Amino acid sequence: xxxxxxxxxxxxxxxxxxxxxxxxxxxxxxxxxxxxxxxxxxxxxxxxxxxxxxxxxxxxxxxxxxxxxxxxxxxxxxxxxxxxxxxxxxxxxxxxxxxxxxxxx
Length: 105
Hints:
It comes from Corallococcus terminator. This is DUF2171 domain-containing protein. The chain has strands at 12-14, 20-28, 31-34, 44-47, 51-55, 58-61, 93-95, 101-103. By secondary structure, it is mainly β.
């Protein structure tokens, strides 16, 4: 179980599948805000009740990217060379026997 006080500015927010959504830009008593970027066109507020777990500097949400209202995946930048765009496969995570968060294989 995480403590809301452990969520700090600069932490990376990930969906339940491990997809990086952005960084924490603000924290208040109700929750925190993910900065605009690759997954969100504007700052995105998140309630503490939407957090599944913390692991180091990563905050894991209960939902995946497809089920977050307002989330969009930005297209691959200004580079027209398709060979530079690698297919992305999200990584699913689970807890090992010690309680640490580890990627599922």
